[in-house]
Amino acid sequence: MAKLILSLEGSVIREVPLDKERITIGRRPQNDIQIENLAVSGEHACIVTILNDSFLEDLGSTNGTLVNGNPIKKHILQNNDVIEIGKYKLKYVVELATAAAAPVTQDDFERTMVMKSSPGRPGAAAAPLTSPPAGMARPAAGPLTSPPMPRAAVPAAATPKPAAADAQPLAALQLLTGPNAGKEIELVKNLTTLGKPGLQVAVITRRPQGYFITHVEGASFPVLNGKAIDAQAHQLNDHDVIELAGVKMEFFLKR
Amino acid sequence: MPNLSSVLEVVTATHPGMVRSHNEDSLAADAEIGLAVLADGMGGYNAGEVASGIAVELIRTEIKKSLANRKPGALDGGDAERLIETHAARANTAIYRASQSQPHYSGMGTTLVVALWHDDRLSVGHIGDSRLYRLRDGALEQITRDHSLLQEQIDSGMITREQARHSQNKNLVTRAVGIDPEVETEVHTYSVQPGDLYLLCSDGLSDMVSDEDVQLTLTSLTANLPLAAEQLVQLANDNGGRDNISVILVRIAKRYPARTSVLDRVKAWFK
Questions:
Q1: Taking a C-beta distance cutoff of 8 angstroms, is the pair B130, B52 a contact?
Q2: Tens digit of pLDDT for each residue in A16-32?
Q3: Model ipTM value
């Protein structure tokens, strides 16, 4: 379960577990987290928690809500985010204890699950999210078919790195012959196509394992270091020479 | 029914991914009748495979059967939509009954996306978060809208698309086949242009590969669809491959209006 650590000028005041679907923060006593300070609005902000995600919303406060120094209206909380309300700080911490206590296999992390509305209301399982303007009203649609397992309790696991190949050293092609001889083509995309469409095309893919060349279309296959390649992908090594659609080029790694 | 095998170029690819031991996705494509079906099953042990397998097999055989009995050009947009709805509902019943009668299938279900090309048009039905995309004039567009908690959060303005990318709730669908006695299929019909490239996929692709990379792959490798499909699977695996990955690519080579001769039209008039 996630929690908030409330502090003022570096000293911790208390910890608040996010054990309710909606937790409010403000100056008035009916708030779940009451902060008696004039810089804090009566109803300042709220945090809605759905399974393992917590959403922070500023409720139109006078002095605003900051997350990691930036003013926000709505924000999806990430581990170790620091919420600032007046001079008070609330640190959002996801505790991994549940994951450690109940070992779950990686396999369980991203299993697709169904959210049911209520028994006897088949099909129309849409959660009533669209109604109020605040949009955060009552997001939990009801009981889940499976208990909310701690399967997504490791936040890092849920965010795929968009391009795993980013770690690759940058590479480029230098054209050796043809009208553009001397020109350099940087291989900055995950996919770079070469050649003349309709005649001969090959693609260079950037992968975590390195760079690969694959034939795409045309009767003749690209020539790599003097030998025609087959339909399979071939890994490129520094200073390999590629011949394609009558043009020679050299592949090299930039450091 | 007119034979569409000279109109549609169809390629499929499926892979268990880098983490899962087995593949719970099922897919089928039949260029002749212009049908593509993809399902992503869920449930314990092998129940997910059973659910997605029932959905795909039932829909493929039943739609094929009912199209065989029709006259060429007898299918209009409404018919196609009804056909998809009817057979998705039957798949729902079949899976639901199996899950009620056999304890080890209890709670199984599946997402579903069905595409049926007919008369220069495309009818698509979907349930859950398996998707249909269209690449037209170099731009990729998502045609179906997920029935998922995340999509509802986006729709309600609670979170932005960018925030959605980092959400941990990606795997919560609000609708699935076989979970309840009845399910509502969302069905729409779109006009089709020659050169359109359609992509049906499970969330194992859409969660792991950005739309930009999907678009780049499809535009770069348009001349070689099998390679494009293979590349999409590879990209998902290179990014972690945390779920099963399935793709169906369908390219429209030319127009395919339903054959309506003057005689047919006159007959239809008197019907």
A1: no
A2: 888 888 899 999 989 98
A3: 0.82
